[in-house]
Specification:
Number of helices: 4
Helix content: over 70%
Strand content: under 5%
Radius of gyration: 18 Å
Largest sheet: 2 strands, antiparallel
Strand order of the largest sheet: 1-2
C-alpha cells in the first residue's frame, strides 16, 4: 500500500519537473534567475511534501513540528550552499569561503540529527 507521504512526494516531483520543463521552454535564463530557480527546485524536491503536509497539520508518522524543522534545514542548506558556491573564490584568512560554508552546513546538519534523535527518544518514552 502506498502511503500518503509517497503520493504527495510523487505529486511534488511531477509538479517540479513540469515547472522545470516550462522554465527551460519559456524562462529567461540569467545568472541570478537561474540560481533562484535551482534553489526553488531543490527546496521543492526535498521539502515540498513536508511543507504541504505540515501546512495541512497532517503529521502522520512524522510530527508536524519535525516536518517544519526539516523544511528549515533544507532551506538553510540550499541557500548556504548556493552562497558558498557563488562566493567560493573569496578567501577568509586563507580559507576559501565555500569550505567554511560546507563545514558550517555539516555542523548544522549534525546538530539537527542529534536534536531529532533526542526528540524522537523523548517522544517514545512518553508513550
Amino acid at each position: 500500500m502506498v502511503s500518503r507521504d509517497s503520493k504527495v512526494q510523487l505529486a511534488v516531483v511531477v509538479a517540479t519537473m513540469a515547472l522545470a520543463t516550462l522554465w527551460v521552454r519559456f524562462g529567461t535564463p540569467g545568472a541570478v534567475t537561474s540560481g533562484l530557480f535551482v534553489v526553488a527546485c531543490y527546496v521543492l524536491l526535498f521539502a515540498g511534501s513536508h511543507v504541504y503536509l505540515a501546512a495541512r497539520g497532517d503529521g502522520g508518522d512524522v510530527p508536524v513540528a519535525a516536518r517544519w524543522r526539516f523544511v528549515g534545514l533544507v532551506s538553510f542548506a540550499v541557500v548556504a550552499l548556493l552562497l558558498g558556491n557563488t562566493f567560493g573564490g573569496v578567501k577568509l584568512d586563507g580559507l576559501a569561503l565555500s569550505k567554511a560554508v560546507w563545514a558550517f552546513v555539516t555542523v548544522v546538519f549534525l546538530a539537527y540529527v542529534v536534536y531529532e534523535a533526542r526528540d524522537g527518544y523523548r517522544a517514545s518514552r512518553e508513550t
